[in-house]
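User: Hi! Is it possible to get a structure for several chains at once, not just one? Here's what I have:
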Amino acid sequence: QKEVEQNSGPLSVPEGAIASLNCTYSDRGSQSFFWYRQYSGKSPELIMSIYSNGDKEDGRFTAQLNKASQYVSLLIRDSQPSDSATYLCAVTPDSSYKLIFGSGTRLLVRP
Amino acid sequence: DTGVSQDPRHKITKRGQNVTFRCDPISEHNRLYWYRQTLGQGPEFLTYFQNEAQLEKSRLLSDRFSAERPKGSFSTLEIQRTEQGDSAMYLCASSLESLSASSYEQYFGPGTRLTVT
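Assistant: Yes, the chains can be modeled jointly so their relative placement is included. Here is the combined structure:
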């Protein structure tokens, strides 16, 4: 079992729709949770961080964390074609600062 | 405020050669991380430094790989006797140690793409 699991996609949504991206993790002691966006050929860009159960909103992005279910999600409202990218979920395991990444979900926003 | 920089951006080398990459973190950041990413996968942790101390290395890291951060500023990653399986994007990230949760937030450089022929 992978430590961080994501559906590889592609997830295809029409412009203006809500895109919902999901991630599960295996280490119950994980402390911090992140979403990175990665365009093809580029490096990951941090878009959201979340540390406690519940929702965290930043502009069109909402991160949701449920530690009991070991589940993190990212909602992108009013999706734009420029949101088309791979979204990487990352967690920090207990007692470490390293990031453990999932393989990413590819999002396609259709004009 | 400049971000993380890496040099070179691309490197093509022949199998068996040694290569060295450089990373300059965001200026006030004292933690520096190296990751490797292959096509279709998320970045894989290699090692990290807090100031000049190397605090963690991946158990998967071959002894052909070595990293240094001698003055707690820039870091180098050297791969000796390169193999074709070393072809990947090598990413550097940095973060700032603080009392807040944001000390876990890592910011990535543009990466060095290594091709071993």
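Chain A has a mean pLDDT of 95. The CA atoms of residues 83 and 109 of chain A lie 7 Å apart.

User: Great, thank you!
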